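pasting for ref. prot 1 ->
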Amino acid sequence: MTINRLLLFSCCLAILTIFSSPVMADEKEINCLAENIYYESESESPFGKEAIADLTVMRYLDKMYPGTFCKVVYDKKHGVQFSWVTMNKPAPKGAAWVESQRIAHKYYANRYKPENRFFRGQRVLFHHATWLPEKATKWFREHPELLPVMVIGNHVFYIYKEDMPKGFTMVASAK
């Protein structure tokens, strides 16, 4: 190989390495998580935002769901998982967006550390808004293997009965 070809090859390899860097991939994943936190819980308290973040992390970690945050958020294999993805939403902005990004970075960094997350590693994979009409929450009533474990702001969170911690008997509520 001539020096020019070797130099050209090295430059191309360096450019490919920069543009396919894990840091860029991480930022894309963090952005998908932040968007989900923002659109699912923009008007919620920090508890509500963290609960949505943790639910998204739990789906990311669960073998039932696709293996990236972006695929979890935009998953259609299981039906639309987060209603906002079907809507033409304006770009995120303001204090709620800044807070969503902060929480997304925290949860991305702690995705393998359940002790640092809202549900402490409990397999909370499902939720719905409290304001939905009864017809829209029919799916949850048709799945008796799911139990509501917490109401946070405008969302009800569910866990599989088999995953329910021993001694846990009540649904908690938080603003």
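and prot 2 ->
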Amino acid sequence: MKKVFLIIIVIIAATVIFSKNVNENNSSAYSYTGIKNIKTSMVIINIEVIGSDRRDVELEYVNIPDEIKLEVEKKGDTLSIVSNYKKKWFNGINLSKFKLIVYAPESTDLNLESVAGKISVRGINGQVITSTTAGKQSFENLTGVIKATTTAGDINGTNITLYGDSDFETTAGNIRIDFKNSLDDISFDMKAVVGEIEVNNNSKGREYSNSSGLYRLNTKSVFGNQEIKTSNLLTL
């Protein structure tokens, strides 16, 4: 009888310890295979996508409470993630800690939306479409086509290689992109309503355009500056 009681105590203790570790890490992960496209429609959740030499897609939920439900649906080679939540429950809560991390093959195409959250993408070779209402966007080590829009937030990019026409647009925020393309690769169509445009450290006023390059770069900011650098400058 004493042995049975001791075993029960050990099992309960182990369960308590395990539960505590899960709560402290406050994250969980799920894996999917055969995915070529990822779409998100998020509210109050930050999105981070990390591309690498892998075959599966792994979703990691960090600090996402039970009040937020993530609905994941796989149709063919497309994975869709949508967030639902109870209105007003998050009043006074630090929303910046809620995050969805996506580990994806580098050839994955992305269509990401977050209403009140940041978007970060790195290591992807494909088409990247992003949209935020109130949240900055950052891109690193990307090759492909980028369509990025935000109402309130900066758009930053480093080590970006374009192989198609791309767009960057913000209503209230700055645009700063470092391209690995040469200056001759890009045709510019840039507009800043209230702000300054700078290309390779040369001031271009509030509008700048040319059509000499292979890929067209469209940028627009209403309240904010724009700074573009290409490999011509970065390798000096």
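Residues 2-25 have pLDDT under 50 and may be disordered.
Helices lie at 2-25, 231-234.
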